[in-house]
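Working notes for the structural subgroup meeting. M.R. asked for a predicted model of this chain before we commit to crystallization trials. I am recording the input and output together here so anyone reviewing the notebook later can reproduce the run.

Input as submitted:
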Amino acid sequence: MTEKARIVVTGVGAVTPIGNDAETFWSNLVAGKSGAAPITQFDTDDLIVKFACEVKDFDFSDYIDAKAARRMDRFSQFAVVAAGQALDQAGIAIDESNAERTAIIMNTGGGGVPTMVNEVRTHDNRGPRRVSPFFIPIFAPNMAAAQVSLTFGVTGPVMASVAACAAGAQALVDGYHLLQRGDADTVIAGGTEAALSQVSVSAFANMQALSRRNDCPEEASRPFDLDRDGFVFAEGCGALILEREEDAKARGAEILCELAGGALTADAFHITAPEPEGRSVTRAMKLALKHAGMAPEDIQAVYAHATSTPIGDIAETKAIKQAFGDHAYDLAVCSPKSQLGHLVGAAGAVSAVACVMTLRDQVMAPTINLDTPDPECDLDYVPNTAREMKLDAILSNSFGFGGQNVVCAFRTV
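Returned structure, recorded in token form:
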């Protein structure tokens, strides 16, 4: 192993509101399909916001049997399926020869929120003796990572960080360093979220964070548009297989792209709002480029965090311009959340899957619903239609409540 190995991606998996595998997700993203629709998982009659980006027609049966599924929250089921897809694409079967040298980093923003809501309701309505004895091992935020370990027999490091909306991207940066240290040979890294509930939707709505376009959900998420009024709550999972390049080549794996580097910073500004000038986000992008050994001019595109909130999109635009200077106006900048909604802890991982597919196909996904550009958001956001273009390297931005910022750099191999 070299002193600083190249870390590559050899497999991806995705469970999203616009497709339950990576290829379907990607084809719908390129096509500009929205995943927003009226909520079906619970009654919304009393809710201010009645729509979200739900995962539809989810089938776990290829990777999870019915008995095991009953002891998993939805966020864990998503993780197992996406991880299984990624392992399959990478051509990796976990057995005695590699179990101890395989690691899992599966992060989340909240863990099993619906399980918690349901068990609290059971406790209050039916009494303490009716609370499930499996409540804790189903709801706990580490259980998605643990269930991936249990399902596939991984006995190396199993890690889970709760990093709000930056969680999925942080898993990739942590996986990168795990491989650089030689603590594992393979890392299953990603983020998963299934936090939709009457309580969580109400909380975000009362925070004034959610769009209220109940009459046209598919047009509600509109990053960088002057008429944006908040994000669309979503669920899903993204998983990536990371390896050192020499190890991937030695086993004859197809290398999809390189995870060239990443960086973490913090705003230290507010529990929910981004720092308006984007100074720490700027620093994260600059550090990611430094760690990847790239100059700003080496990047052709950015997958933005851009959630469709008035303050957030402007702050990120400022940060991109500060990080890239005049080159910012040459970048293609896309917000997948225009189609996916905000997957919270899974957002960064699903964005990373999009980066991998973008580099493979040399196509930049569009930012849909960008009809009236905000004058303060004046970059090239690939409005409404995907674009074929030459792409060698991409940044992916992820920012979380509390001011956590993560930027990942991807490059062709």
